Protein backbone atom coordinates (compact mmCIF):
# COMPACT_ATOMS: atom_id res chain seq x y z
CA UNK A 1 0.00 0.00 0.00
CA UNK A 2 1.27 3.44 -0.87
CA UNK A 3 1.48 5.54 2.26
CA UNK A 4 1.25 8.75 0.24
CA UNK A 5 -2.25 7.76 -0.89
CA UNK A 6 -3.42 6.94 2.61
CA UNK A 7 -5.67 9.32 4.47
CA UNK A 8 -5.93 9.21 8.21
CA UNK A 9 -8.19 11.32 10.43
CA UNK A 10 -7.22 12.71 13.82
CA UNK A 11 -10.26 13.78 15.81
CA UNK A 12 -11.04 14.77 19.37
CA UNK A 13 -12.37 17.31 21.80
CA UNK A 14 -12.45 21.06 21.39
CA UNK A 15 -11.27 21.33 24.96
CA UNK A 16 -8.18 19.15 25.17
CA UNK A 17 -5.62 18.86 27.93
CA UNK A 18 -2.09 19.89 27.10
CA UNK A 19 -1.25 16.20 26.85
CA UNK A 20 -3.97 15.78 24.23
CA UNK A 21 -2.58 18.63 22.15
CA UNK A 22 0.91 17.16 22.33
CA UNK A 23 -0.32 13.69 21.39
CA UNK A 24 -2.35 14.87 18.41
CA UNK A 25 0.57 17.01 17.24
CA UNK A 26 2.96 14.10 17.52
CA UNK A 27 0.68 11.70 15.62
CA UNK A 28 -0.07 14.29 12.93
CA UNK A 29 3.57 15.29 12.55
CA UNK A 30 5.05 11.80 12.33
CA UNK A 31 2.32 10.36 10.13
CA UNK A 32 2.48 13.38 7.80
CA UNK A 33 6.22 12.92 7.53
CA UNK A 34 5.62 9.28 6.69
CA UNK A 35 3.48 10.48 3.76
CA UNK A 36 -0.05 10.15 5.16
CA UNK A 37 -2.65 12.83 4.47
CA UNK A 38 -4.01 14.16 7.76
CA UNK A 39 -7.77 14.77 7.78
CA UNK A 40 -9.69 16.59 10.49
CA UNK A 41 -12.57 19.00 11.05
CA UNK A 42 -10.87 22.36 11.68
CA UNK A 43 -12.50 22.66 15.11
CA UNK A 44 -10.62 24.21 18.01
CA UNK A 45 -8.47 21.91 20.14
CA UNK A 46 -7.40 18.49 18.85
CA UNK A 47 -8.52 19.17 15.26
CA UNK A 48 -6.61 22.44 14.98
CA UNK A 49 -3.45 21.06 16.54
CA UNK A 50 -3.47 18.09 14.13
CA UNK A 51 -3.86 20.35 11.07
CA UNK A 52 -1.20 22.67 12.37
CA UNK A 53 1.34 19.93 13.07
CA UNK A 54 0.76 18.42 9.61
CA UNK A 55 1.41 21.80 7.96
CA UNK A 56 4.48 22.35 10.10
CA UNK A 57 5.85 18.99 8.98
CA UNK A 58 5.30 20.14 5.36
CA UNK A 59 2.73 17.36 5.06
CA UNK A 60 -0.68 17.37 3.42
CA UNK A 61 -3.88 18.05 5.27
CA UNK A 62 -7.60 18.16 4.52
CA UNK A 63 -10.15 20.04 6.61
CA UNK A 64 -13.72 18.80 6.24
CA UNK A 65 -16.08 21.60 7.25
CA UNK A 66 -19.58 21.68 8.66
CA UNK A 67 -20.35 24.93 6.80
CA UNK A 68 -19.73 26.44 3.37
CA UNK A 69 -16.03 26.71 2.46
CA UNK A 70 -16.41 30.50 2.33
CA UNK A 71 -17.82 30.70 5.87
CA UNK A 72 -15.25 31.45 8.52
CA UNK A 73 -15.95 29.08 11.39
CA UNK A 74 -14.60 28.89 14.00
CA UNK A 75 -13.43 32.48 13.61
CA UNK A 76 -10.48 31.87 15.94
CA UNK A 77 -8.96 29.46 13.42
CA UNK A 78 -8.84 31.98 10.59
CA UNK A 79 -5.08 31.89 10.18
CA UNK A 80 -5.03 28.12 10.16
CA UNK A 81 -7.92 28.00 7.69
CA UNK A 82 -6.12 30.37 5.32
CA UNK A 83 -2.97 28.30 5.54
CA UNK A 84 -4.87 25.10 4.78
CA UNK A 85 -6.60 26.84 1.85
CA UNK A 86 -3.15 27.73 0.48
CA UNK A 87 -1.28 24.48 1.15
CA UNK A 88 -3.96 21.86 1.73
CA UNK A 89 -7.63 21.30 1.02
CA UNK A 90 -10.81 22.75 2.48
CA UNK A 91 -13.72 20.46 1.82
CA UNK A 92 -17.45 20.87 2.30
CA UNK A 93 -20.59 19.19 0.95
CA UNK A 94 -22.56 22.38 1.55
CA UNK A 95 -23.03 25.26 -0.91
CA UNK A 96 -21.18 28.50 -0.33
CA UNK A 97 -22.68 30.66 2.37
CA UNK A 98 -24.07 27.77 4.45
CA UNK A 99 -23.86 28.76 8.09
CA UNK A 100 -22.60 26.24 10.66
CA UNK A 101 -25.32 24.43 12.61
CA UNK A 102 -24.98 21.87 15.36
CA UNK A 103 -26.69 19.16 13.32
CA UNK A 104 -24.25 19.61 10.43
CA UNK A 105 -21.22 18.58 12.46
CA UNK A 106 -22.22 14.91 12.85
CA UNK A 107 -22.97 15.00 9.10
CA UNK A 108 -19.51 16.37 8.51
CA UNK A 109 -18.04 13.60 10.66
CA UNK A 110 -19.43 11.13 8.15
CA UNK A 111 -17.30 12.80 5.45
CA UNK A 112 -14.24 12.67 7.68
CA UNK A 113 -14.76 8.95 8.30
CA UNK A 114 -15.47 8.23 4.65
CA UNK A 115 -12.37 10.00 3.40
CA UNK A 116 -9.96 7.99 5.51
CA UNK A 117 -8.53 4.55 5.79
CA UNK A 118 -8.44 5.03 9.54
CA UNK A 119 -9.58 7.38 12.30
CA UNK A 120 -7.51 8.17 15.38
CA UNK A 121 -9.43 9.38 18.44
CA UNK A 122 -7.11 11.32 20.75
CA UNK A 123 -9.22 12.87 23.49
CA UNK A 124 -12.93 13.32 23.98
CA UNK A 125 -15.51 13.47 26.73
CA UNK A 126 -18.12 10.76 27.31
CA UNK A 127 -20.47 12.35 24.74
CA UNK A 128 -17.83 13.57 22.33
CA UNK A 129 -18.53 14.00 18.63
CA UNK A 130 -15.38 11.95 18.16
CA UNK A 131 -17.43 8.92 19.21
CA UNK A 132 -19.86 9.63 16.38
CA UNK A 133 -17.01 9.84 13.90
CA UNK A 134 -15.57 6.58 15.25
CA UNK A 135 -18.91 4.74 14.96
CA UNK A 136 -19.42 6.08 11.45
CA UNK A 137 -15.96 4.83 10.60
CA UNK A 138 -16.69 1.37 11.96
CA UNK A 139 -19.88 1.24 9.88
CA UNK A 140 -17.91 2.18 6.77
CA UNK A 141 -15.39 -0.55 7.48
CA UNK A 142 -12.62 1.86 8.39
CA UNK A 143 -9.98 1.17 10.99
CA UNK A 144 -10.46 3.03 14.27
CA UNK A 145 -7.61 3.77 16.65
CA UNK A 146 -7.78 5.25 20.12
CA UNK A 147 -5.04 6.69 22.29
CA UNK A 148 -5.86 5.65 25.86
CA UNK A 149 -5.58 7.97 28.85
CA UNK A 150 -5.81 7.99 32.59
CA UNK A 151 -9.26 7.14 33.94
CA UNK A 152 -9.01 10.30 36.03
CA UNK A 153 -8.76 12.39 32.89
CA UNK A 154 -12.34 13.11 31.80
CA UNK A 155 -11.08 13.83 28.30
CA UNK A 156 -9.83 10.26 27.98
CA UNK A 157 -13.39 8.91 28.36
CA UNK A 158 -14.11 8.63 24.63
CA UNK A 159 -10.94 6.76 23.59
CA UNK A 160 -11.08 4.51 26.65
CA UNK A 161 -14.71 3.65 25.93
CA UNK A 162 -13.89 2.81 22.31
CA UNK A 163 -11.16 0.46 23.49
CA UNK A 164 -13.42 -1.07 26.15
CA UNK A 165 -16.12 -1.88 23.62
CA UNK A 166 -13.55 -3.21 21.13
CA UNK A 167 -14.53 -0.65 18.52
CA UNK A 168 -11.01 0.72 18.38
CA UNK A 169 -7.46 -0.57 18.41
CA UNK A 170 -5.33 0.78 21.21
CA UNK A 171 -2.37 2.79 19.89
CA UNK A 172 0.32 4.61 21.82
CA UNK A 173 2.74 5.36 18.98
CA UNK A 174 2.20 6.81 15.48
CA UNK A 175 4.10 3.76 14.24
CA UNK A 176 1.23 1.48 15.35
CA UNK A 177 -1.17 3.33 13.03
CA UNK A 178 1.32 3.34 10.20
CA UNK A 179 1.99 -0.38 10.36
CA UNK A 180 -1.73 -1.14 10.40
CA UNK A 181 -2.64 1.09 7.46
CA UNK A 182 0.49 0.57 5.33
CA UNK A 183 1.32 -3.10 5.85
CA UNK A 184 4.61 -4.16 4.34
CA UNK A 185 6.07 -0.64 4.28
CA UNK A 186 8.95 -0.13 6.67
CA UNK A 187 8.45 2.58 9.32
CA UNK A 188 11.57 4.67 9.23
CA UNK A 189 12.86 5.78 12.55
CA UNK A 190 13.57 9.21 11.11
CA UNK A 191 9.84 9.90 11.12
CA UNK A 192 9.69 9.89 14.85
CA UNK A 193 11.28 12.93 16.34
CA UNK A 194 13.00 11.35 19.13
CA UNK A 195 14.40 12.61 22.28
CA UNK A 196 17.84 14.00 21.90
CA UNK A 197 19.94 11.73 23.98
CA UNK A 198 20.83 13.74 27.03
CA UNK A 199 18.90 12.87 30.14
CA UNK A 200 18.37 15.86 32.43
CA UNK A 201 19.82 15.45 35.88
CA UNK A 202 17.05 15.69 38.47
CA UNK A 203 17.33 15.93 42.19
CA UNK A 204 15.40 13.56 44.39
CA UNK A 205 12.48 15.88 45.15
CA UNK A 206 12.17 16.83 41.48
CA UNK A 207 11.90 13.15 40.58
CA UNK A 208 9.24 12.59 43.21
CA UNK A 209 7.26 15.59 41.94
CA UNK A 210 7.58 14.34 38.36
CA UNK A 211 6.18 10.97 39.41
CA UNK A 212 3.06 12.64 40.83
CA UNK A 213 2.32 14.81 37.80
CA UNK A 214 -0.43 13.78 35.44
CA UNK A 215 -1.96 14.61 32.06
CA UNK A 216 -4.47 16.79 33.90
CA UNK A 217 -3.29 19.71 36.05
CA UNK A 218 -2.31 18.85 39.61
CA UNK A 219 -2.37 21.73 42.09
CA UNK A 220 0.76 22.72 44.00
CA UNK A 221 -1.12 22.24 47.26
CA UNK A 222 -2.08 18.72 46.38
CA UNK A 223 1.56 17.93 45.55
CA UNK A 224 2.73 19.54 48.77
CA UNK A 225 0.35 17.42 50.82
CA UNK A 226 1.11 14.18 48.99
CA UNK A 227 4.84 14.75 49.32
CA UNK A 228 4.77 16.14 52.85
CA UNK A 229 7.17 18.91 51.82
CA UNK A 230 7.14 22.65 52.36
CA UNK A 231 5.30 24.49 49.60
CA UNK A 232 8.44 26.51 48.84
CA UNK A 233 10.42 23.36 48.12
CA UNK A 234 7.68 22.00 45.87
CA UNK A 235 7.35 25.28 43.97
CA UNK A 236 11.10 25.23 43.47
CA UNK A 237 11.08 21.69 42.10
CA UNK A 238 8.20 22.59 39.76
CA UNK A 239 10.03 25.63 38.41
CA UNK A 240 13.05 23.46 37.78
CA UNK A 241 10.96 20.86 35.92
CA UNK A 242 9.34 23.66 33.94
CA UNK A 243 12.69 25.07 32.87
CA UNK A 244 13.74 21.58 31.75
CA UNK A 245 10.56 21.39 29.65
CA UNK A 246 9.20 18.47 31.67
CA UNK A 247 6.22 20.20 33.28
CA UNK A 248 3.83 22.91 32.19
CA UNK A 249 2.08 25.58 34.25
CA UNK A 250 -1.69 25.80 33.75
CA UNK A 251 -4.38 27.85 35.51
CA UNK A 252 -5.35 24.85 37.60
CA UNK A 253 -1.86 23.57 38.42
CA UNK A 254 0.94 21.72 36.67
CA UNK A 255 0.76 19.07 33.93
CA UNK A 256 3.40 16.70 32.67
CA UNK A 257 4.70 17.27 29.11
CA UNK A 258 5.59 14.63 26.54
CA UNK A 259 9.27 15.09 27.37
CA UNK A 260 8.42 14.75 31.06
CA UNK A 261 6.58 11.49 30.44
CA UNK A 262 9.60 10.13 28.52
CA UNK A 263 11.99 11.05 31.34
CA UNK A 264 9.64 9.47 33.85
CA UNK A 265 9.52 6.23 31.86
CA UNK A 266 13.29 6.09 31.77
CA UNK A 267 13.44 6.68 35.52
CA UNK A 268 11.17 3.71 36.10
CA UNK A 269 13.33 1.58 33.81
CA UNK A 270 16.46 2.27 35.81
CA UNK B 1 -7.62 39.07 54.50
CA UNK B 2 -4.21 38.26 53.09
CA UNK B 3 -4.20 41.51 51.10
CA UNK B 4 -5.15 43.55 54.17
CA UNK B 5 -2.03 42.26 55.90
CA UNK B 6 0.18 43.63 53.19
CA UNK B 7 0.68 47.19 54.48
CA UNK B 8 1.87 45.55 57.72
CA UNK B 9 4.93 44.03 56.08
CA UNK B 10 5.91 47.21 54.29
CA UNK B 11 8.75 49.22 55.80
CA UNK B 12 7.54 52.08 58.00
CA UNK B 13 6.84 55.33 56.14
CA UNK B 14 9.50 58.00 56.12
CA UNK B 15 8.61 61.47 57.37
CA UNK B 16 8.41 62.69 53.78
CA UNK B 17 6.04 59.85 52.85
CA UNK B 18 3.83 60.53 55.87
CA UNK B 19 3.58 64.16 54.85
CA UNK B 20 2.51 63.23 51.32
CA UNK B 21 -0.11 60.76 52.49
CA UNK B 22 -1.52 63.25 55.02
CA UNK B 23 -1.64 65.98 52.40
CA UNK B 24 -3.65 63.86 49.98
CA UNK B 25 -6.08 62.92 52.75
CA UNK B 26 -6.46 66.54 53.64
CA UNK B 27 -7.25 67.54 50.06
CA UNK B 28 -9.79 64.72 49.88
CA UNK B 29 -11.43 66.04 53.04
CA UNK B 30 -10.80 62.81 54.91
CA UNK B 31 -8.76 64.37 57.69
CA UNK B 32 -10.48 64.95 61.03
CA UNK B 33 -9.54 68.01 63.02
CA UNK B 34 -7.80 66.00 65.71
CA UNK B 35 -6.00 63.48 63.52
CA UNK B 36 -2.31 64.17 63.19
CA UNK B 37 0.24 62.94 60.69
CA UNK B 38 -0.66 59.63 59.04
CA UNK B 39 1.65 56.87 60.21
CA UNK B 40 0.01 53.71 58.81
CA UNK B 41 0.31 53.01 55.11
CA UNK B 42 -3.01 53.37 53.32
CA UNK B 43 -5.00 50.36 52.20
CA UNK B 44 -7.76 51.10 49.71
CA UNK B 45 -10.17 48.56 48.31
CA UNK B 46 -12.75 50.28 46.12
CA UNK B 47 -15.81 48.29 45.12
CA UNK B 48 -15.95 47.01 41.56
CA UNK B 49 -18.69 49.50 40.69
CA UNK B 50 -16.22 52.34 41.19
CA UNK B 51 -16.45 55.02 38.50
CA UNK B 52 -13.52 56.30 36.54
CA UNK B 53 -13.69 59.60 38.45
CA UNK B 54 -13.77 57.72 41.75
CA UNK B 55 -10.65 55.78 40.88
CA UNK B 56 -8.70 58.49 39.11
CA UNK B 57 -9.91 61.61 40.85
CA UNK B 58 -12.10 64.45 39.69
CA UNK B 59 -15.69 65.10 40.64
CA UNK B 60 -17.66 68.31 40.44
CA UNK B 61 -16.16 71.64 41.48
CA UNK B 62 -12.58 71.29 42.64
CA UNK B 63 -11.05 68.02 41.47
CA UNK B 64 -10.48 65.62 44.34
CA UNK B 65 -7.97 62.79 44.51
CA UNK B 66 -9.27 59.36 43.53
CA UNK B 67 -8.61 55.94 45.00
CA UNK B 68 -5.25 55.58 43.24
CA UNK B 69 -3.98 58.72 44.98
CA UNK B 70 -5.51 57.80 48.32
CA UNK B 71 -3.50 54.59 48.04
CA UNK B 72 -0.27 56.59 47.49
CA UNK B 73 2.62 54.84 49.30
CA UNK B 74 0.26 52.03 50.23
CA UNK B 75 -1.87 49.32 48.68
CA UNK B 76 -4.70 49.46 46.16
CA UNK B 77 -6.60 46.19 46.35
CA UNK B 78 -9.05 45.24 43.61
CA UNK B 79 -11.02 42.20 44.74
CA UNK B 80 -12.67 40.23 41.92
CA UNK B 81 -10.64 42.31 39.50
CA UNK B 82 -12.37 40.80 36.47
CA UNK B 83 -15.66 42.42 37.55
CA UNK B 84 -14.32 45.97 37.24
CA UNK B 85 -15.25 47.89 34.16
CA UNK B 86 -12.69 47.25 31.50
CA UNK B 87 -12.11 50.91 30.65
CA UNK B 88 -11.50 51.63 34.34
CA UNK B 89 -8.91 48.86 34.54
CA UNK B 90 -7.19 49.85 31.33
CA UNK B 91 -6.91 53.35 32.61
CA UNK B 92 -4.68 52.11 35.46
CA UNK B 93 -1.86 51.35 33.06
CA UNK B 94 -0.65 54.94 32.82
CA UNK B 95 -0.54 55.78 36.55
CA UNK B 96 1.10 52.42 37.30
CA UNK B 97 3.90 53.42 34.98
CA UNK B 98 4.18 57.12 35.85
CA UNK B 99 3.15 57.26 39.52
CA UNK B 100 1.17 60.41 38.89
CA UNK B 101 -2.32 61.34 37.64
CA UNK B 102 -3.13 64.54 35.83
CA UNK B 103 -6.68 65.81 35.75
CA UNK B 104 -7.35 68.46 33.13
CA UNK B 105 -10.00 71.02 33.99
CA UNK B 106 -11.06 74.20 32.28
CA UNK B 107 -9.21 76.09 35.02
CA UNK B 108 -5.97 74.20 34.54
CA UNK B 109 -4.35 70.82 35.17
CA UNK B 110 -4.19 69.28 38.62
CA UNK B 111 -1.80 66.46 39.34
CA UNK B 112 -1.86 64.04 42.25
CA UNK B 113 0.85 61.52 43.09
CA UNK B 114 -0.11 57.83 43.04
CA UNK B 115 2.71 55.40 43.77
CA UNK B 116 0.95 52.35 45.07
CA UNK B 117 1.24 48.59 45.09
CA UNK B 118 -1.58 47.08 43.07
CA UNK B 119 -3.07 43.79 44.19
CA UNK B 120 -5.79 42.08 42.20
CA UNK B 121 -7.68 38.94 43.12
CA UNK B 122 -9.78 36.82 40.82
CA UNK B 123 -11.16 33.32 40.48
CA UNK B 124 -9.45 30.88 38.13
CA UNK B 125 -12.70 30.56 36.12
CA UNK B 126 -16.30 31.84 36.24
CA UNK B 127 -17.53 29.03 38.52
CA UNK B 128 -14.45 29.28 40.71
CA UNK B 129 -13.67 25.59 40.94
CA UNK B 130 -11.01 25.14 38.27
CA UNK B 131 -8.16 23.25 39.91
CA UNK B 132 -10.17 22.57 43.06
CA UNK B 133 -9.80 19.08 44.44
CA UNK B 134 -13.19 18.70 46.02
CA UNK B 135 -15.43 19.97 43.23
CA UNK B 136 -15.07 19.86 39.52
CA UNK B 137 -15.22 22.96 37.36
CA UNK B 138 -18.31 23.33 35.21
CA UNK B 139 -16.98 25.94 32.79
CA UNK B 140 -16.03 25.23 29.21
CA UNK B 141 -12.83 26.37 27.56
CA UNK B 142 -14.38 29.37 25.83
CA UNK B 143 -15.95 30.64 29.05
CA UNK B 144 -12.61 30.37 30.83
CA UNK B 145 -10.81 32.14 28.00
CA UNK B 146 -13.40 34.92 27.94
CA UNK B 147 -13.22 35.34 31.70
CA UNK B 148 -9.44 35.54 31.76
CA UNK B 149 -9.41 37.87 28.75
CA UNK B 150 -11.25 40.52 30.76
CA UNK B 151 -7.78 41.50 31.87
CA UNK B 152 -5.91 42.67 28.79
CA UNK B 153 -2.41 41.43 28.06
CA UNK B 154 -0.82 44.88 28.53
CA UNK B 155 -2.47 45.25 31.95
CA UNK B 156 -1.47 41.73 33.03
CA UNK B 157 2.01 42.60 31.87
CA UNK B 158 2.24 45.17 34.65
CA UNK B 159 1.80 42.59 37.38
CA UNK B 160 5.12 41.25 38.63
CA UNK B 161 3.89 38.21 40.46
CA UNK B 162 1.02 35.77 40.35
CA UNK B 163 0.23 33.35 43.15
CA UNK B 164 -2.34 30.59 42.98
CA UNK B 165 -4.33 30.34 46.20
CA UNK B 166 -6.23 27.17 46.94
CA UNK B 167 -9.00 26.61 49.42
CA UNK B 168 -7.82 26.12 53.00
CA UNK B 169 -8.17 22.64 54.43
CA UNK B 170 -10.12 21.93 57.59
CA UNK B 171 -6.87 21.50 59.50
CA UNK B 172 -5.63 24.89 58.34
CA UNK B 173 -8.97 26.56 59.13
CA UNK B 174 -9.26 25.15 62.63
CA UNK B 175 -5.66 24.79 63.71
CA UNK B 176 -3.39 27.49 65.08
CA UNK B 177 -2.07 29.85 62.40
CA UNK B 178 1.07 28.60 60.75
CA UNK B 179 3.82 30.77 59.38
CA UNK B 180 5.41 33.99 60.50
CA UNK B 181 3.66 37.08 61.76
CA UNK B 182 3.83 40.36 59.88
CA UNK B 183 6.37 41.86 62.25
CA UNK B 184 8.97 39.18 61.45
CA UNK B 185 8.35 39.56 57.72
CA UNK B 186 8.58 43.33 57.98
CA UNK B 187 12.05 43.11 59.54
CA UNK B 188 13.17 40.97 56.62
CA UNK B 189 11.66 43.44 54.17
CA UNK B 190 13.45 46.34 55.86
CA UNK B 191 16.76 44.47 55.64
CA UNK B 192 16.16 43.83 51.95
CA UNK B 193 15.30 47.50 51.43
CA UNK B 194 18.52 48.47 53.19
CA UNK B 195 20.47 46.22 50.80
CA UNK B 196 18.76 47.95 47.89
CA UNK B 197 19.48 51.39 49.30
CA UNK B 198 23.20 50.54 49.42
CA UNK B 199 23.12 48.95 45.99
CA UNK B 200 21.56 51.90 44.22
CA UNK B 201 23.09 54.50 46.60
CA UNK B 202 19.65 56.01 47.08
CA UNK B 203 16.99 55.49 49.72
CA UNK B 204 14.13 55.65 47.21
CA UNK B 205 15.31 53.46 44.33
CA UNK B 206 14.20 49.81 44.62
CA UNK B 207 14.67 46.74 42.43
CA UNK B 208 11.30 47.53 40.88
CA UNK B 209 11.99 51.18 40.14
CA UNK B 210 15.67 50.95 39.19
CA UNK B 211 16.45 51.77 35.58
CA UNK B 212 17.60 49.02 33.27
CA UNK B 213 21.20 50.21 33.35
CA UNK B 214 21.24 50.58 37.14
CA UNK B 215 19.93 47.04 37.43
CA UNK B 216 22.27 45.51 34.85
CA UNK B 217 25.43 46.88 36.40
CA UNK B 218 24.54 45.67 39.91
CA UNK B 219 22.54 42.53 39.29
CA UNK B 220 25.11 39.80 40.15
CA UNK B 221 24.03 36.33 39.05
CA UNK B 222 25.84 33.18 40.14
CA UNK B 223 27.08 31.08 37.21
CA UNK B 224 24.61 28.30 37.98
CA UNK B 225 21.77 30.82 37.98
CA UNK B 226 22.95 32.25 34.65
CA UNK B 227 22.79 28.76 33.09
CA UNK B 228 19.27 28.20 34.42
CA UNK B 229 18.21 31.61 33.15
CA UNK B 230 19.31 30.77 29.65
CA UNK B 231 17.49 27.41 29.85
CA UNK B 232 14.37 29.20 31.12
CA UNK B 233 14.41 31.70 28.26
CA UNK B 234 14.36 28.79 25.80
CA UNK B 235 11.93 26.51 27.61
CA UNK B 236 9.39 29.18 28.51
CA UNK B 237 10.04 31.43 25.49
CA UNK B 238 10.38 34.48 27.73
CA UNK B 239 10.13 37.91 26.12
CA UNK B 240 12.49 40.79 26.81
CA UNK B 241 9.96 42.22 29.22
CA UNK B 242 9.50 38.79 30.79
CA UNK B 243 13.24 38.42 31.45
CA UNK B 244 13.45 41.93 32.88
CA UNK B 245 10.61 41.24 35.30
CA UNK B 246 11.98 37.84 36.22
CA UNK B 247 15.37 39.33 37.09
CA UNK B 248 13.86 42.10 39.22
CA UNK B 249 11.82 39.56 41.17
CA UNK B 250 14.83 37.23 41.47
CA UNK B 251 17.01 40.10 42.75
CA UNK B 252 14.36 40.86 45.38
CA UNK B 253 14.09 37.20 46.41
CA UNK B 254 17.88 37.15 46.82
CA UNK B 255 17.73 40.36 48.90
CA UNK B 256 15.12 38.83 51.18
CA UNK B 257 17.34 35.78 51.59
CA UNK B 258 20.32 38.03 52.23
CA UNK B 259 22.25 36.69 49.22
CA UNK B 260 24.83 38.99 47.61
CA UNK B 261 24.48 37.23 44.24
CA UNK B 262 21.33 35.63 42.83
CA UNK B 263 21.50 31.86 43.28
CA UNK B 264 19.73 29.30 41.11
CA UNK B 265 17.31 28.71 43.99
CA UNK B 266 16.42 32.43 44.00
CA UNK B 267 15.86 32.26 40.26
CA UNK B 268 13.58 29.21 40.51
CA UNK B 269 11.67 30.94 43.30
CA UNK B 270 11.16 33.98 41.09
CA UNK B 271 10.05 31.71 38.24
CA UNK B 272 7.32 30.18 40.36
CA UNK B 273 5.70 33.65 40.59
CA UNK B 274 5.66 33.96 36.83
CA UNK B 275 2.38 34.88 35.17
CA UNK B 276 0.36 32.47 33.16
CA UNK B 277 -0.13 33.52 29.57
CA UNK B 278 -3.41 35.44 29.43
CA UNK B 279 -6.70 34.14 28.10
CA UNK B 280 -6.14 32.11 25.00
CA UNK B 281 -5.26 28.66 26.07
CA UNK B 282 -1.77 27.83 25.00
CA UNK B 283 -3.39 26.47 21.85
CA UNK B 284 -1.38 26.44 18.65
Labels describing this entry:
heterodimer; A: 270 residues; alpha/beta; 7-stranded parallel sheet; two-stranded antiparallel sheet; 11 helices; 9 strands; 44% helix; globular; B: 284 residues; mainly alpha; 3-stranded parallel sheet; two-stranded antiparallel ribbon; 7 strands; disordered C terminus
Architecture overview:
Helices cover 44% and strands 13% of the residues of chain A. In chain A, the strands form two sheets. Chain A has a seven-stranded parallel β-sheet with strand order 4-3-2-1-5-6-7, with helices on both faces. In chain A, strands 8-9 form a two-stranded antiparallel sheet. Chain A is globular. The longest helix of chain A has 16 residues, at 18-33. The mean pLDDT of chain A is 89. By secondary structure, chain A is of the alpha/beta class. Chain B is mostly helical and 284 residues long. In chain B, α12 (223-235) runs parallel beside α14 and α13 (240-257) crosses α14. The longest helix of chain B has 18 residues, at 182-199. In chain B, 27% of the residues are buried. The interface between A and B is medium-sized, with 31 and 27 residues.
Q: What's the gyration radius of chain A in Å?
A: 19 Å
- Number of E strands of chain A: 9
Q: Bin the helical content of chain A.
A: 40-55%
Helix content of chain B: 40-55%
Give the integer mean of the pLDDT values of chain A.
Answer: 89
Report the structural category of chain A.
alpha/beta
The number of distinct helices of chain B, counting runs of at least 4 residues, comes to: 14
The main β sheet of chain B shows up as: 3 strands, parallel
Q: Strand order across the biggest sheet of chain B?
A: 1-4-7
Query: What is the subunit arrangement here?
Result: heterodimer
Low-confidence stretches of chain A: none
Which strand order does the major sheet of chain A show? 4-3-2-1-5-6-7
